[in-house]
Amino acid sequence: VRGFRALIMGPPGCGKGHISEKIVKKYGAVHIAAGDILRKHISEGTNLGREAEKYISKGALVPDSLLLGVIGTAVYKAGKRNWILDGFPRTLAQARHLEKVAHLDMVINLQIPDEAILNMLKYRLVHVPSGRVYNLGSKAPMVRGLDDVTGEKLERRADDRPLVVMARLESFVHQMEPVIRFYRKRHLLHTIYGRQHQSIWPLVERYLIKRWGL
Ligand code: AMP
């Protein structure tokens, strides 16, 4: 039996990573997170990472010429397992590209008000090598500033500064409108409204049970 191929969409900082983590744990899905892949390249100092960093630090989108290859490889590697794509596509062109390389089963669209996002991002810390995300308000690490699993240092993302977040939220709405229409037309879109990860996950879970019988 082929696994499910899901896409999770939502404004930056809305908790996509957290919800994806839950899906990974419950369904053994592969999490393909565009931002995590790019940050890993940056921390490893690859050519791609150096190029991508110029865009990421400004809150701008990384050009498709840098991104499409790494996403395609990740989707190919996930093969027939359940997978959840996070942070890609972010433009109509990327959605069209994805349609050519993979058949999607569902698109989960998270809708969270801006002020709830700004509040969550104030307290976000990440462990860059693994992509694990913490929040000093709702999911603090066991030892302040250190990753629970490896004990390595946690970092604030450079693009979580309030001004950069505002730029990211603005360009997100602008870019995602056509992507949302694209998936709505294909009857793949399921929108979930909420303010916090804790209240959103049960809604996502209920949808997955209903949609995928899991
Ligand atoms: P994220 O972790 O998803 O918030 O992504 C962090 C940053 O990586 C974004 O602000 C963009 O600069 C870049 N990025 C992630 N996904 C994409 C994408 N699909 N297209 C272009 N740039 C992306």
From TrEMBL:
Q: At the top level of its lineage, which domain of life is listed?
A: Eukaryota
Keyword Hydrolase part of the UniProt annotation: no
Q: Where is the signal peptide?
A: none
* Matches recorded under Gene3D superfamilies: P-loop containing nucleotide triphosphate hydrolases
Quote the InterPro entries the UniProt record gives: Adenyl_kin_sub, Adenylat/UMP-CMP_kin, Adenylat_kinase_CS, Adenylate_kinase_lid-dom, P-loop_NTPase
What protein family is recorded? Belongs to the adenylate kinase family.
HAMAP family noted in UniProt: Adenylate_kinase_Adk
Under what name is this protein listed?
Adenylate kinase active site lid domain-containing protein
Which organism is this entry from?
Drosophila rubida
